Every structure is written in C-alpha cells, then in structure tokens.
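User: For my dataset I need records formatted as: sequence, then structure tokens, nothing else. Please produce one.
Assistant:
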Amino acid sequence: MFWIKNRRLILWILYALFFLHAYIWYALGYQRIGQFGFGEIFLTLKTGIFTAGTIFVLVVFIHALFFGGLFCGWFCHWGVTQDVFAWILEKCGIKPVMRHLDSKYIQWTWFIILISQVVLYWWFNGFPTSVEFNPSYTEVWAGNPKAIFMICMTCIISGFLLVFLFGERAFCRSICTFRLWFSWFDKIAPYKIRRTKDCSACSNECTDSCFMDIDVAKEIKINGVIKNTACVKCFKCMGACPNAVLDSSFVKLGKENNEIIEKPAPQFDRLSSLIQAAMAVIILHFFGYSIGGNMSLSSGLIIGFILIHIWNTKSLSLFEILMLILCPIGLYYANDMNPITSLAKGLGAITVFVLIAKYVGFSKGFKFIEEMPGHNNTSKILVALVVIIAIAVGGVEIAASYNIQKAAAAAKNKDWKTYAEVLEEWGSYHNDQRSLYFDLGKVELFNLKQFDRSVEAFKKSFDLSYREDLAVQTAQIYLEEGLPNHAKNLINHFIEKGHDSPALRELLASAENELAAKKAAILGH
C-alpha cells in the first residue's frame, strides 16, 4: 500500500509545509492566511471571528466524523515531531519501552481551562452578536515560543523526555486534549482497521508496531476490527503484519464482534494520575506564561511521577537529578532571540539529554514503574498535599481570569480607570503580557495621564520582548508630549538592559537638551 511504504516521506512533506507556512508569513510578508490551530475554535466561540484556524478545525472535525483519529496519525505536526524524537533515540541506540498510561485527568484539566476562559468571556461581554470572517486574524506562530532555544527545550521536555520515559507518542496518549476529542469522534466513525481473513501464526508484530499502546492482535483476533478509540489509523500495524490480513475500510469485511478487550494494567493508578494532573495545574500557575501550556502539562506529568518515585522509594536516581538540573537551567536561559546562539544552545541541550539518556539511563526509575501496576501504592497524604496546593493556585487562576476579562470589558466600555487598576494587579496572569503591558502603557499615557505608571508598564512590555523600532517610537512620543524626563528614564532602562543603539543615544541627547533648556528657563526667571 502506497501510504504504508511512503509514510515517513509523506510526514516529512507535511512537516515541510508546516514550516513553509511560517516562512511565507514572516519572511515573505504574505499574511492573508493565519494560524491553523485547534485553539482558534475557542477564539471564535468568544468573539464570533472565524479565522483560517477555525475553518481548519471545522474541516478536521467533519473529517473525523468519518475517519476518527486519522488526523493524529498523519497530519498533526506534534505527532510527527514525536515520531522524529523516537527515531532519533533509536538511531542513538536508545529503544523507548511502551509504558501503559491510562489517565485522562491532564487532558480534561486543560480542556476545562479552555472552556472556562470562554465562559468568563461570555460573562462579561455576552455572546457574540455578529460573525466576521478574518483568515489572518491570528498570526501563524502565535502562542508558540519565538526563541529557537525555547523551541528546543519544548522538544526535550514534551518530546524526548516523555518518549524516553513512557514510550512513543507519550504526549498524545497522556496529555493532548485534542487527542481526547478525536477519541470521541472515533466512537462513531465508520472508517476502521479490519481483518480481511483469519489470522495466521505470527509474533504479534501488529501490536509491537502500535505507538498508541493498543493490543492490536487481541482486538483483531477477537473482534475482527480495532475498536479502541486511541487508534489513529497510522497503518503501521497493517505494514507490520507478515500475513497481510489487515486493511482499512468504511464497511465490515467479515464478521465483527463487540467484546470488551481488557486493557493492560496502567503504570500509574488513578491517585498517581491525580497527582500528575494537580502538578500540571501548579506549574501552569507559576510558569505557564513563560514556558507555555505544552511544557507545563508535560512537566506536571513528569514531576508528578518523580514525586511519587521519591515518596515511595525515598531515593532520587542520578537521571532524575540531572534532569532536574538540565531542564530548569535550560528554561532559565531559553529566551535567547539571537538565532545563531539560540540554535547552538538548543542543539547542545538536546545532545546533552541524549547522552544522559544513553549513558546514565533510568534503570532505578524503570524498575519502580514496572512494580507499580496493580499495587495502588500511591500515598493518600501525598495526593492530599499536592491537590490542596493545586486547588489553592487554581483559585488564584480563576480570580485572575475573572479580573482579566473584567478589564477587557472595561476597555470595551472605555472605562480606562477600571481597566488600568485591574491590570496593574492582575496583568502578570495574562497569556500575552507583552501586548497587555504595552496597551496598558498607552492607556496610562494618553487616557489617564499617569505618566510614571505608563513608563513602568512600557518597561515591563519591552523586557518581555524588545523591538528597537517600537522602543524608539515610544521614547519619541514622550518627547513629543513634553515629557523629556520620562523619555530619559525609559531610554536609560533600555540601555541598562543591553539594548544600546545610536537611535536611542540620539533621543537621549534630545531629552537631556530639553531638560537642560527647561532648567535654564526656570533659573532665568
């Protein structure tokens, strides 16, 4: 079958198209078709704006009604990336072992957060009263890390590390909320992998090839069809079958049964999974806006596992120690926007991880994982402690979301005083702090005439993402408004942060000259 034989080539072509879209947007400046992302559906629910991503989601959902989770097996860029991670590890002599993960807690956690954001928006702004089609509303790489080093750290934490610990497609099987959606579609989708004739003697190659942890051989032998909703129709099992008894179709190819297939015992019991979900909430609260949801959820799963390991064994393996050193240090320095140094550090971090995985290993931890199924030995005290902390920080997040939506409603009604007061207190919880503080600075400068506060807001914005042209324009505005002292304050901040330039020095000289002239005028009187 063409698709099976050329699977890797097809996936590389799809990935090339993914980056080509970003190249066209940023390098060529063609910005008429924006981001293709599942998050766009939530934007549309809030605002009524249909973006290119919204149309993409609707098309994928219609496709899923017939084909189930095939999108995840062939078209998801993060799914393809995980396949690349597994391939690199294998080429380096590391064969990830499939660990049985059977928890939806983290997936549901992220889904509830996304829905809650929509509900809060409706609470303050009401339901959308109009529909607008704007395919370029969301930029292609919006919500994703811009620094290459940060992208590499995402690959390590949400990719290499998860694959190394728990097997191929670990992110899909345990974290991805959208994979959860596709499992719902798969219950009704007619397109499935089916048995075309009786199975002959084999070594269960179909099961061994499945990166979604499905016992394909048992499903096919008992029911004649794969009904497990985790199936992504990647066709790897069809290609692995030595007797060519598998095929994909919309209709039954023979008698099919409906027996429930008992799944292997999960590596983590439900209390363990609850700890991991609670840790994801905690990390989202403290670091989510700096490292993103992808890494926060992955880190919650991993750190939750390490907590359980330490609690039960009263020990910490060398691998865990090295990971707890490598990842935080990497994330601390990850926002390097210089493409050359950022790429060099990113590739260096990946190399260090692979070397640790290959030569240090995680035998103690793996032994612990294997002992967990069926024992349910997770401490209820540990669960209570982590969940209580998660509830506490979750409450803060709810309050922050409430107030940020309140600020948005105030801005819509031009209640600038309320807008500024709320964001001064809650702005650090916004998912785009750079834009928020920049807008806050403009409001405090032009609408409220709170000049000192406006300077501080602009400082926060440029500290998060510096653009020289915008920095020069902002300082120039203060000079035009007759505020040379504030312009000087802002320019000196830029220079202290390492953003010195001739344009800034020229503006600084203008501000000092203007201040000197004002001083001379005062003394003259």
